[in-house]
Amino acid sequence: MTTARQKLALGVMVSGGGSNLQSILDAAASGAIDVEVKVVISNRPQAKGLARAREAGVPAVVVSHRKYREREVFEDMLLARLREHGAQWVALAGFMRLLTPRFLDAFKDRVINIHPALLPAFPGTHGQRQALEYGVKVAGCTVHFVDAGTDTGPIIGQAAVPVLDGDDEATLGARILAQEHRLYPRVLQLLARGRVTRQGRRVCIAQEPDQNEALLANPFLG
Ligand code: GRF
After folding, report:
1. Residue 18: CB within 6 Å of ligand 1?
2. Which of 33, 89, 100, 111 could be 146's S-S partner, Cβ–Cβ 3.0 to 4.6 Å?
3. 221 Cα: distance to centroid of ligand 1 (angstroms)
4. What separation, in Å, do the N-terminal and C-terminal C-alpha atoms of the chain show?
5. List of residues 6+ apart from 127 with CB closer than 8 A
């Protein structure tokens, strides 16, 4: 008899389309990653990510930043919903509000984010456009721990894509997004298996035999 592996209890916070959320939900549902999405929270009631959550049978909750205008109150509401649904980790997936140290302390070293650029290049909004305008030949995406800065936290994993001569923001963005959908579940699986350690800014990935080794075989993840 095999014992079920312990799952990482995840809250996902979105503001929009939620295609990264979908990649996490799909990987979790197929058993490819040891993650259980406990709740999806959006600060925007119309976010498509909410429908994706419901479709997957995951509680979908709106915490509107317009309703709770004071940031402290807004974040208290987020924290309450996360806790009430049993989330131990938080994945930001296109969540468009900055989080204060107070929120981050409540989930210390357990909040991660995905950004559509190879950090530390091109933080903030429109990472893909910034890469095109700068003229880099390699672009990509980054999953990192969240700290109080904008996209400045320690890097866990990155994936690179070429920038082609004919690219515009849409074509480059789509190429990056395809990698985001692979990278985010992989990083979550590393966290779920306890293979991620931090020393200051440096994040190390322990090399251990794992039944999901094929999933994790990515040169950019070490
Ligand atoms: C992604 O490009 C992600 O890197 C950024 O916001 C976008 C969200 O896309 N943080 P989606 O909502 O997951 O489709």
Report:
1. yes
2. 111
3. 20
4. 33
5. 115, 116, 117
Catalytic: 115?
yes
Is-contact 201 152, C-beta < 8 A?
no
> Residue 190, class by beta-carbon neighbours within 10 Å (0-12 exposed, 13-18 middle, 19+ buried)?
buried
Beta strands in the chain (DSSP E): 8-14, 35-42, 60-62, 89-92, 111-115, 138-145, 155-162, 196-199, 202-205
Q: Which two tokens stand for residue 4?
A: 């079920």
User: Is the pLDDT at 132 greater than 50, yes or no?
Assistant: yes
Catalytic residue among 115, 126, 144, 181, which? 115
* Cα 90 to Cα 200: distance, rounded to the nearest angstrom: 20
Q: Is the pLDDT of residue 211 over 80?
A: no
Burial (CB count <10 Å: 0-12, 13-18, 19+), residue 68: middle
- CA distance linking residue 110 with residue 122, whole number of Å: 23
- Residue nearest atom 6 in ligand 1 by C-alpha distance: 94
Distance between CA atoms of 185 and 216, rounded to whole angstroms?
9
Does the reported pTM lie above 0.90?
yes
Residue 17 Cβ < 6 Å to ligand 1 = yes
20 touches ligand 1 (CB under 6 Å): yes
For the segment 35-64, what is each residue's pLDDT rounded down to a tens digit?
A: 999 999 999 999 999 999 999 999 999 999
Q: What is the mean pLDDT of the chain?
A: 94
Give the whole-angstrom CA distance, residue 84 versus residue 4.
24
